[in-house]
Fold Enoyl reductase (ER) domain-containing protein.
Amino acid sequence: NRSITLDSRPFGAPNTDNFLIKNQKPPSPLQGQVLLRSVYLSLDPYMRGRMNDTKSYAEPIALGETMVGATVCRIEISLNDNFQEGDWVLAFSGWQDYALSDGKDLLKIPPNLANPSFALGVLGMPGLTAYMGLLDIGQPKTGETVVVAAATGAVGSLVGQIAKLKGCTVIGIAGSEEKCAYAVDQLGFDHCLNHKSDNLAQQLEQVCTKGIDVYFENVGGRVFDVVMPLLNPCARIPLCGLISQYNATELPEGPDRMSLLMGSILIKRIKMQGFIVFDDYSHRYNEFSQAMTLWLSESKIKYREHLIEGLDNTVDAFIGLLEGKNFGKLVVRLGPD
Ligand code: NDP
């Protein structure tokens, strides 16, 4: 059983020295337990936060412990009546090949699902995040303008497509020309701008001819700076993530913009609301799943996975996620189906 543990806490961007690969015998299940064999591992930005020893909505990963993460697994051995060998399940068994479970934390994945790994993305946590953040907090209305950054990623690509289904004008912001072309040509966004270009503020102003009604916040930092002046009165900001800050070790340079932000929120009556998808929206999973399954079957939603092969490439892929190297939902294939 190979596993990747947290060996030291990163200061700034994580590097390979923060992780350790261990190799041990696979554990043996006791009565009532199952042995899980991980086939797909989800890599997600929140894992960076769990590497810090700071108070957050979830406990930090302890040094020496296996890195956490959602997985799609096969039941390899079952000593639990609720599961049969060969069943597909959604688990939270982390960065390792094998794990034990008593079954209580497992969700069965329908055997006829064409792509079991979709349970980690479009039909799983990132999908629920996009759906609930946009529809429940963002409340987009037909004809409004929705802006979303990390626009081709797991969450952002779905936010933009759902907003299009609701009749909005959608503007994506992404980290390369290739990603932007994909957002417009394949995902149907109206525009997509490269946040690495020098004149992002002017470009955004040019395409947001009617201002911004919903800004789905995935990244923070420089992107938020250019969005803020264009927000319309009564704009909504689902505050989902701030990935541009996850590796930051100090406050950004320049003047303190807190009073500017608070002034804008006040004068424009902006609603900005953070959310943690598991805590706030787990109970609405079925509603989301029905809608998303239908949209997928009707080809109204497109979904792109960035598949990495093997545990050996997991650390580099995760480091790359925080640098924009992924193009689509980042998933590692740990073993054969
Ligand atoms: P993505 O698949 O979008 O991958 C991350 C992307 O973020 C990168 O590809 C890159 O895209 C962008 N990025 C990375 N670094 C920077 C940077 N410095 N500045 C701007 N963009 C950057 O990840 P997810 O869709 O899984 O997550 C998107 C956001 O949603 C994250 O902030 C995450 O923490 C948050 N989230 C929050 C949840 C909640 O419950 N609140 C649940 C799930 C996710 P590009 O190259 O286009 O810039």
